[in-house]
Request: fold
Amino acid sequence: MKQLLTKLSGTVTEYSEKIPEDLVALTARFAIATVFWQSAQTKITGWSFLDQSWQFFNVTQSTFFLFEYEYGVPLLPANVAAYMATFAEFFLSLAIVFGLFTRVSAVGLLGMTAVIQFFVYPGSWPVHLLWAVGLLYLIKHGAGRLSIDHIYMSSVR
Reply:
């Protein structure tokens, strides 16, 4: 039995090492960006293209209501927190999709995740932990070769 498990483990390891790192980075980028992009879409209204809202500055009244009465983010007025969260979700998720300032964007979203975890929904730690894993991967490894970051860094060298 031990030999079988050792062989199985070796086989899985052998095949998993063939997964391109750029594919993992691209998957992490799209997975985490989707979470925050979809959240931004619930907070804005206005001009629509490809079934997505693009008026990032047009924050809905329901968003202001949530920040005022449900979220309770400390230290910031609710309307300021609503704009900051909406802009961060909108722009940082776009930056991550394109692989632009990926590490900085991931740090921003990880900070936002921490605020959500500790001040808004402390009981949702399993979900926030999943977000953190993707963001920590991007902070550590970057966006990969299929990114604006990589194109820029290649041209600088």
In short: The beta strands are 48-49, 52-53. The mean pLDDT is 93. Residues 20-156 form one domain.
